[in-house]
Predict the structure.
Amino acid sequence: MLMKNENVAISCHVKGIVQGVGFRPFVYRIALANDLAGWVKNDVVGVQIHVEGAAESINNFIEDLQEKAPPASEVVSVDTRPTDKQSISGFEIRESESLNRPLVRITPDLCICEDCRREILDSTNRRYLYPYTNCTNCGPRYSIIEALPYDRRHTTMTNWSMCSECSDEYHDPADRRFHAQPNCCPTCGPTFKFHALDKNTVYVADALAKCASYLQEGKIVAIKGIGGFHLACDAKNEVAVEQIRARKFRKEKPFALMAKDLATAQQFVTVSVEDHSLLKSPASPIVLLNRKAASQAIAPNVAPGMDELGIMLPYTPLHVLLFELGAPNVIVLTSANRSNEPIAYTDNGALSSLSEIADAFLIGDRPIARRTDDSVVRTVGGSTIQLRRARGFAPAVVTTFPSKRPILAVGADLKNTVTLVVDGEAVMSPYIGDLEHYEVQVSHEQVIEDLTQMYELPLDEVLVVHDTHPGYISTQKALELPGEKIAIQHHRAHIASVLAERRAWDQTVVGVAFDGTGYGDDGTIWGGEIFVGSLKEGFERVKHLKPAWLPGGDAAVKNPEQAAAGFLHVLAKEYDFSTEPFNFSSSFHQGLSLIEKDVQTFTTTSIGRLFDTVAALLGFTRKMSFEGQAAIWLENLAVNSSAGKIYSFPNFNHDALLTAIIKDYLEEKPRGDIARIFIRSLALAIVEVYAELSDGIHSVPLVLSGGVFQNQLLCKDIMSLIQQKKASVELWQNLHVPPNDGGISLGQTALAVI
Ligand code: ZN
Ligand code: ZN
Ligand code: FE
């Protein structure tokens, strides 16, 4: 601690997310407030500050630096050391040193801040009702950047020049809009136009109000947002929701909602403290929240059969204004695309692909540089699980590596993302989608090109990492790229993604990778794998689900009855599954006969298919209309049951487990109880196998990854079983990347380089 009145100088280095988030103006303001002289500038790894003045003021300044930092910033460390006085008067923001190559400094898009919200709702403010309002604390970044460094001329705002008032703000270090690259106002900036297709009219002056009234009337509007177009309609209007489903060919997959404010959301869903802070965070993701009984007001076809609703709060000035101008207080807001295509983000693309779907378009002039979907998260026991990592999170750095080698990992074919490692920093792309669709493949190529160009990395110098699956489209695309290639097994990549996030390069762990599908070392389809090892030494597969058949291959992935045939073909000799209570259709029997004839039949250790089998036994016998639907259905069935017994599931041998389930169901035990016991039995089997494998080894974390661990009941059960054992087991799950295949690209980079 410094002497109170002594006059001193301090040099300060701040690391974390401190660039492009209004950090330098913030430093400027707190320096002036504390009566200090000096300067601030960005450097290669953060922000550098020199301050001089009274010792007490410097102490206050350092406190303010940590406690009052801008909402979008994240201060990781503040290193201070005494330095020589430079006898400067006043405080200035200095220009950054020019760098040879752009470093990893692209900030994700940020939700509207409280100050901007106040301005657009204040009738005396010059930005009253202006939908493109932003400042250094908020607004678009990634979605408007054309190139680095992040300057206005490198953004999609380049065609608008600032009026004198905006320019004054931009150049005034004391202003909230100092160096806010997309700064604009109604005088100088872009506007929105409302295209009413049904009336063949374009509204300009009252575009937003018109849009709000269309939504109120039950119409479907395509709205241009931050990272692409959304389709919107009144979430309480069943007919409107049905129209979107019919026009989009989207049968049952739930739609996300946007509620006017927290109080409105709380009418329909339960919001915990953690959920609340996620909803209001700068990333403003879609948060999956448990429905309240009163949520009947939401049209039932928004999320048929689902116990949860995906909700977000207004995150752009545009959204705030639509509600303010009379839009229904909760609207469906779903990515605008035809079924399975990537989100539309260009005006022409949207107009041509959505004209059959939307009754009207609300289109803003500011172009979107690249598409970014809304992110989806859920909280379990106080921690956050990423389900779809995109807007607001990408492309922030997810971890750092002790290696400078540039690496590009192309991910897996489902829920694809790519990860680029530049100067030891791992940047993950936003969610791209499922590569079986041509448009998504094009998008995948664009993202690779975009990321590598942005960081000026010549592709032939980059180590390319892909899945071991020879049939994956991502593998084939990777093999077409120049440069050295490495293949990484899918489930090891899942475990590696968790370790990479924690920079645990040497740590030996027990890794449980449970998911639907991944190519195994032996060429069969894995998905219930247990490994022991470390990133450095590699992971040895020590246990796995007892293999079952997968009749019909990929077709069985979409058809739970067909998957069930693979697990039940022996039991089918004992039980008649075509009668009550199972009522399996001919697809089950076709599955059985494929196995008997050994046609189109594969071996699998997939826990995902085991979930499908149990779901089919308990009544989910229709074809799935989206990935993971049967497992989610099963979790919904189980969620309100507290049945306490356990099914025997020794060594992941499913015979006894499935027999017990069949017997219980024949004895008319409630399906919810059976589903609940199944999930708890799986949790117990994991904890038991962990105990066995870690016996005698000192402190071995239990690592869980793979799509199955999106199941919150399973995760909660594992946590509570560990607590009951009172053992000091460290449970490691993914922190910033999804446990599903969206996290694979990060794991691939880690295994390739460490
Ligand atoms: Zn703002
Ligand atoms: Zn202006
Ligand atoms: Fe997977």
Observations:
- Residues 162-163, 165-166, 184-185, 187-188 surround zinc ion (ligand 2) (CB under 6 Å).
- The chain has a mean pLDDT of 93.
- The chain is about 30% helix and 20% strand.
